[in-house]
Amino acid sequence: MSNFQKGLFDKLQQNTNINPDDVYKVADSVKHANFSDEKTVRNLVRHLAKLANKPISQEKENKIVQSIVKNKMPADMQSLNQIFKK
Asked: Per-domain residue ranges for the chain?
């Protein structure tokens, strides 16, 4: 693992309390996932919220799921952060 990756995962764990091993497990589990399937995406969003120990409102969950299913996710981090802050 490069220093950049280690720093990124250390920051992730510090900010969200998510273990980097859990991130790898989630990433591995969705390698071949169908992101146009609402049920699959909804389960993933719920799983990630649970891992981060962050409650997510039904409204925010719906917005995230629909953005992913319709392939309308923002390309930049600033826009992506706006989705999660609302």
From this structure: 21-85
